Amino acid sequence: MNSLGHSPNAKLDKTILEKYLRLPQPEDKLQVTYIWIDGTGEHVRAKDRTLNFLPKSPKDYPIWNYDGSSTYQAEGSNSDTFLNPVAVYKDPFRPGANNTLVLCDTYKYNKEPTATNHRRTCLEAVERAVDTKPWFGIEQEYTLLDSDLRPFGWPANGFPGPQGPYYCGVGADKVYAREIVEAHYRACLYAGIDIAGTNAEVMPAQWEFQVGPGEGIKCADDLWVARYILHRIAEEYGVIVTFDPKPMTGNWNGSGAHCNFSTLAMREENGIIEIEKAIDKLSKQHLRHIQAYDPKGGKDNVRRLTGHHETSSIHDFSAGVANRGASIRIPRGVAEDKKGYLEDRRPSSNCDPYSVCNALIRTCILDE
Length: 368
Ligand SMILES: [Mg+2]
Fold this sequence. Notes:
28% of the residues lie in helices and 23% in strands. With 368 residues, the chain is α+β, with helices and mostly antiparallel strands. α3 (119-128) runs parallel beside α11 (353-364) and α4 (178-191) packs across α5 (218-237). The chain is globular. The N and C termini lie far apart (56 Å). Residues 139, 141, 201, 208 line the site of magnesium ion.
């Protein structure tokens, strides 16, 4: 069986759509995709609508609603769930007009945030910490799967050679589906996401992109929309993106979402003192952070944070210069410059970045 032989999306002729996307779009009509996080806390949903005006900011977009009983977010008898637009991006799938992607947070029928709306709490922390100018940069690792749910490009009955040649690899025997990574990179730039780079990762079919650094909530917003764009592009190829933190058991690396964090004081002369203070606070709140760093309150990270494969043990807090086996890494350059940022290596690849940023601000800045 050829790779992707079972994938209906891979079989469709992608060039036909071009004919329709070239049709002129009425100047007074805008196509808008509303994107939100569903009740799993890790998957995104989206639906589209036409607007006959050009909104100037997120709050000019109409509040919309959806059937929350079909997204694990409401009972069927009271299922209207509200979408509040919070961030706007250019739409790379319908380029050349004012079409947009609109990231939304979600509210129940009674206007209370849904259980997976972690943005609201994060924004409150960001606003209280605004004077310290917190910056975040997140390294999003992920794995591409074939439609049989095996990593893309892996032999159907067996395994690729052991890890070693694949990280930042080049060549057809080292990396698979680079075109998805390329398409995603450019589409994110077009959309207005602060995508900082990409690389092939340690396990074959595993990749990474980085978002940030951005101040406040921008990095987390960008990451959610970057995930949406990645799912959409892979969908066109018939390939599946998984953010599962340990898609393959055994001697294969898992996936994380290392979070690089700093405040203005950390970035200034002798900021290393502030970095060490933050690490001391983090050492006393290990459990809070583990609970915030994957969508299942720490259960997903049990599979990944084993103390092997460049991870720390989920049970212990540790920190060290240039140590990829620690909870917190102080990069070598930061130790030498005595200022900069710290890297929290614990967040799982399927984390909600709002929960991660929220926990870091509350522990390190707000002293909660
Ligand atoms: Mg990495």
